[in-house]
Amino acid sequence: MKDKLVLIGAGGYCRGVLDSLLLLDSYEIVGITDPATPIGTDVYGISVLGTDDILPKLFESGVKKAHITVGSVGNCSLRKKLVEMAENIGFELVTIIDPNAVLAKDVRLGKMAYIGKSATINSDVEIGNYCIINTGSIIEHGCRIGNFVHVAPGSVLVGDIHVGNESHFGLNCSVLQGLTIGNRVIVGAGSTVLRNVNDGETVVGIVK
């Protein structure tokens, strides 16, 4: 018997995660909660059940696993709030790895990671809690990634990079090997980072 799973959030990010889940076929997906989406809305055959207010009743009914399907682009506050809410209810927040992702055998993943289609994570990489490693991104050997980090589609983090918490790497950006990227950093789409980046910085273009 498959474990029952609820998804929290019905936006665009939910569709990508849900497609991965349907390919994996590892859980019984009971539905989705979202405060802004009408009850009964169909997302790839899975229904929106109501707002997040119904989550305690779902947990009491036997749904013990959840995944937060609200993403983040430079601001993790809502995602963090939903994680706290779900964990306080008692849900186990599960990691989801798309079957087309490639992970080295010694990759270490924290709680509730999402690893998207064709993402590649190489040897001796550590990913923190609640991270999104999105479609086609590459994280090379020896990288250390903090909590609530979002690596957007097509981004490349070359080897031995250290990344703090709540940082965002925009679409198709690249980060040179051996650098340190601080907490709450935003790297703009298409940027190339050639130097260390301090906490709270937003960097775009060729960063040197």
TrEMBL record:
Keyword annotations from UniProtKB, A to Z: Repeat, Transferase
Domain Mannose-1-phosphate guanyltransferase C-terminal: 95-167
One Pfam family linked to the record: PglD_N
Gene3D superfamilies: 3.40.50.20, Hexapeptide repeat proteins (2.160.10.10)
InterPro entries in alphabetical order: AcTrfase_PglD-like, GMPPB_C, Hexapep_transf_CS, PglD_N, Trans_hexapeptide_repeat, Trimer_LpxA-like_sf
Signal peptide annotation: none
Domain of life according to the entry: Bacteria
Domain PglD N-terminal: 4-85
Molecular function via GO: transferase activity
Residue positions binding substrate: G74
Annotated residues for binding of acetyl-CoA: H150
Record's keyword annotation contains Repeat: yes
PROSITE patterns on file: HEXAPEP_TRANSFERASES
Family matches, as NCBIfam families: NeuD_NnaD
Protein name per UniProt: Acetyltransferase
Species of provenance: Faecalibacillus faecis
